[in-house]
Amino acid sequence: MRLSTKHLLGIRELSPQDIQLILDTASQFKEVLQRPIKKVPSLRDVTIVNLFYENSTRTRISFELAEKRLSADTINFSASGSSVSKGETLLDTVNNILSMKVDMVVMRHSATGAPHFLARHIPAAIVNAGDGINEHPTQALLDAFSIRERLGTLEGKKVAIIGDIMHSRVALSNIYLLKKMGAEVTVAGPPTLIPKHMAEAFNVRVEYDLNKALQWCDVANVLRIQLERQNQVLFSSLREYNLAYGVKKSLLDNLDKEILVMHPGPINRGVELDSDVADSKQSIILQQVENGVAVRMAVLYLLAGREG
Description:
Elements (H helix, E strand, L loop, with lengths): L15 H18 L13 E6 L5 H12 L3 E6 L11 H9 L5 E6 L4 H8 L3 E7 L5 H15 L6 E5 L6 H12 L3 E5 L9 H5 L2 E3 L2 H7 L2 E4 L15 H8 L3 H5 L6 E3 L12 H4 L6 H19 L5
Helix pairs in contact: 1-5, 1-12, 2-12, 5-6, 5-12
C-alpha cells in the first residue's frame, strides 16, 4: 500500500486509510527500535534536508533520529546561522539545497502555509514539521499512535484537548485526525483561548469547566500556554491559570475512572500540568516521545515511495 499523497503537509489532506497505513507502519518500526541494532537500510540512498526556520528541540531531534535509524543521508539547516539572516528568500534557499540533489525536505516555519508554498514550487517530497498556527501533522500522528497503543483503538474514544487552543497547531492537527478516525473531541480552556465558532467549524464540543472535561474524557491531551504567540493579555496570571485550568493530581483522584494524560511538550510545570501528574502512571508523555521516532520513520519511509 502507498499513501495517496506525495507530501505530508497536514492531516487535513490525509484520508483515514493514509492515517491507518502510517500508524500500522509505525508499529512495525517500533518493533525495530526495540532491537539491539536499531538501524535498517530502508532509506540508504535517500537524502533528506531538515529545514528549521523556528526553534525546535524535540521535533528536530526526533526527525534526525528517525532519519539515522532508516540510514538516510541528512543535512541539517538552521535558519539563524544561514544566508536567511542575510535576506535570502525561502525559495532561493530551497533551490540552492535542491541543486545538491535532495529527495525530501522536513520543514518547520513560523509562516502558516510555508510547506504548501514549497510543495508547489519544488519536486522534493515535503514533510511539515509545524507551520505557524496551522498544523503539526506528525505530532497528531504520534499522539494518535500513543492512544491506540494504550486503548486499542481511536474509534469511539473521548479525547479532551485542554489549554491554549487558539495558538496551537497541535490542537488543529489532533482535531482533524481524531474526527477522521471516529473519536469524539472536546476542547477545554478559558474562553479567551478558544476561538469563537470552534464548535460549529470543527464539530467539537467546547467546555470552559476543566472538571467537566476531565469527567467526560478517556484521554486528556494538555497543551502548553504559548506566551510567545500571544500579543495581548488573555488571562490574569500564570498562577490564576493554574488554579482554574491546571491539571492537578487531586482533580484526577476525584474522577470515577482513570484517564490517560498526554502533553506534546515542552511542559510548563506548575502551569497547565502539575509535576505529580506529569510524572504519574497515568501520564504517557515519555511514551509519546519514544513513539515520535517510530511515527516519523513511518512517514519518511512511506513518502520515499517504499512499499508499505
